[in-house]
Write a structure and sequence with these properties.
Helix content is 35%, strand content 16%. By secondary structure, it is α+β, with helices and mostly antiparallel strands. It has one domain: endopeptidase fold (from Nostoc punctiforme), CATH 3.90.1720.10.
């Protein structure tokens, strides 16, 4: 019983921290892309309490295993929760890829209409959830 209470308390703290990341993104995001999605989402993750080495490109949060090392696990598309993150692979047209956090809607450096931000030449998308 005691371990269940501790696990519940930890889950509550983590969800509250992810909400801090979303609060930052809601305040900082623009209406259109600035081209700095990785910078904005990295700051949101830091505001949520995560410590990591920032990556030079958005796609590297997946390819270099950063999200996994922070305790995120890969999930499928759909039924997203606050704090879920997606990373889009780099392509010829999008050499840095893309990253965003779900905060009731997808937000990166801008308020996205969906998780499909590229009209063409879109790389694979990898979805993650903490815990």
């Amino acid at each position: 019983m005691r371990s269940l209470i501790i696990i519940s308390a930890i889950a509550f703290i983590l969800s509250a921290n992810l909400q801090n990341g979303c609060n930052y993104l809601r305040r900082a995001a623009h209406q259109k892309s600035t081209g700095y999605c990785a910078r904005y989402v990295a700051t949101a993750l830091e505001k949520a309490g995560f410590r990591f080495q920032r990556q030079g490109s958005a796609y590297q949060y997946h390819s270099n295993g950063i999200l996994r090392r922070l305790g995120f696990r890969q999930i499928g598309r759909g039924n997203h929760r606050t704090g879920d993150v997606y990373v889009q692979d780099k392509t010829r047209s999008h050499k840095h890829g893309h990253i965003a956090m779900y905060c009731g809607r997808w937000i990166s450096d801008f308020f996205q209409r969906s998780d499909q931000v590229y009209r063409s030449d879109a790389g694979a998308i990898h979805y993650y959830r903490y815990g």
